Amino acid sequence: MPIFSVKSRPTNIFFSVIIAARNETDSIAALLKDLDAQEYKNFEIILVDDHSTDGTAQKITEIIPSLSVQASCIRLLAHEQGKKAAINKGISQAKGTHIVSTDADCRVGKRWLYTFAAYIESKRPKLISAPVTLDFSSTLFEKIQTVEFISLIGSGAVFMYWKKPNMCNGANICYEKASFYEVNGFSGNEQIPSGDDEFLMHKIAALYPNDVRFIKSTDAIVRTRAKTSFRDFFYQRKRWASKWNHYRSRSPIVVAILVFGFHLTFCLLPFLYLSGWIAVGTVLCFVALKMLGEFFFLAPLLRFTVQKNRIWLIPLVSLIHPFYVVFFGLAGNFGNYKWKGRTH
């Protein structure tokens, strides 16, 4: 996939940057500072407070007057709840022709919107997915998440390049406001807590299969933090895994089943060897090919996101990842999880 380079200075796109925030007093100021420093100034910021209990709305209100760009903060009503409701309400008040969405705990570079605008003027896509990486990590657990996470971003990018989009990340996504309404937005999956990104992408791709794109540019990267506790990591991945059986498009379901089946086979290799079904050479060959393939896929991605110091972790992640996939593939179908202080 070629790296996108800006050919001319973009001027005509007006963005509405919508940020759904719930209990983000520790991170929202940094994101607003990043947005205020954007080289591209043709945008507005709409922050939607999702019933925060830590004073997030008050902090946003205090920061807004100091910003050099137009910004507003609205709150969800008592009967409104969740990220989809927040984004939907933000879009209803958006002035922009294009919606850009990121999360309140993310950081963006100063050419973030500039790159989106240039890409839109050059390619005219209906929806753009852009790179997200986990950064600011210090522990081994956090660093392992970085490698695992970039594999998801890379896989999503490849399928978009093949015109078969199956996943994206709502922390870095842009789409036409007109296209959002053309596919009836989040209608049909409003009650599913997750999927504000992928379900919308699938709906737009169904109408415009050639106009869902991934933008490969270091200037478009969004950075966020890995989960510091296994409990938070468990709930996040369980939430993500619970989406697959709600897909209406056949392609992502088939991919999910194939990925699960491949990793299940890997997990069963020790039992197949001990039972005499396969030889030890076959096991070692399978493991070696998997690790080699993933190394050549992931190493360039880590270099692209300026995290080449994580490359040494690829073999370790390659070994534990199949057990992780199988575990969360099963766990996503059972029980509840907590997200933003709510139980789903």
Tally of DSSP helical segments:
11
Silhouette: globular
The CATH superfamily of the domain at 15-130 and 163-238 bears the name Spore Coat Polysaccharide Biosynthesis Protein SpsA, Chain A
CATH architecture level-2 label of the domain at 15-130 and 163-238: Alpha-Beta Complex
Query: Got a strand count?
Result: 12
Q: Please mark out the parts with pLDDT under 50 across 5 or more consecutive residues, or reply none.
A: none
Query: Order of helices and strands, N to C?
Result: EHEHEHEEHEEHEHHEEHHHHEE
Kindly name the structural category: alpha/beta
Mean pLDDT: 91
Q: What fraction strand?
A: 5-15%
User: Termini distance?
Assistant: 38 Å
CATH hierarchy class name of the domain at 15-130 and 163-238 = Alpha Beta
* Radius of gyration from the alpha-carbon trace, in angstroms: 20 Å
Biggest sheet statistics: 7 strands, mixed
Major sheet: order of its strands?
3-2-1-4-8-6-9
Per the CATH scheme, the topology name of the domain at 15-130 and 163-238 is Spore Coat Polysaccharide Biosynthesis Protein SpsA, Chain A
Helical fraction equals 40-55%
Briefly summarize what is shown.
The chain is an alpha/beta fold.
Topology:
Elements: E1 15-21, H1 28-36, E2 43-49, H2 56-63, E3 70-75, H3 83-92, E4 98-103, E5 107-108, H4 112-123, E6 127-129, E7 132-135, H5 140-161, E8 173-176, H6 177-182, H7 198-207, E9 212-214, E10 222-225, H8 230-241, H9 250-274, H10 280-304, H11 314-331, E11 338-339, E12 342-343
Parallel strand pairs: 1-2, 1-4, 2-3, 6-9, 7-10
Antiparallel strand pairs: 4-8, 5-10, 6-8, 11-12
